[in-house]
Amino acid sequence: MSARTAAAVALLKESPETLDGFLRLSAIFESTTLDPHSRETVVLTVAERHQCHLCVDMHEAEMAALGPVPDPERLAAVRTFTLRVLASSGAVTDEDLAAFAKAGYTRRNALEVVLGIGAYTLSTFANRLTRAA
Asked: Which of 52-61, 77-86, 113-122 has the lowest mean pLDDT?
């Protein structure tokens, strides 16, 4: 854990419930059927949209550690879908779901994207509120 990450976690400890909630949700998100590159893409999309520079830096490093992206078009589809879910508060169109499926994702994956959005919205908002980001 980097010093910057440790400092952010220390700030969240002011609310043990918030810290615990994030840690549990993020662990559950990590156990989903989305592949690691797709999960990191969801996290980065949320972090960029919410302007959490701490999360962007941390998850860009995690994405790089995963190695070369096996299918850039597939990741573009999960990024687009994540943005559509965020913009519509979940009320994506049938066309959005079809485009996501065409990229090889399932309805289960769509719900897992929602889980990732929830977990990392909690994190990014808390980091911004505590001035960690």
From this structure: 52-61
* CA–CA gap between residue 59 and residue 39 (Å, rounded): 10
* For the chain, counts of helices (H) and of strands (E): 7, 0
Nearby residues of 118 by Cβ (< 8 Å), 6 or more positions away: 25
Closest CA to 86 of 62, 64, 118, 125: 118
Query: What is the H or E stretch that residue 23 is in?
Result: helix 16-30
- Rounded distance between C-alpha atoms, residue 125 and residue 133, angstroms: 9
- Taking only the tens place, the pLDDT of each residue in 73-86 is 999 999 999 999 99
In angstroms, the Cα distances linking 33 to 19, 56, 128, 133 are 24, 23, 29, 29
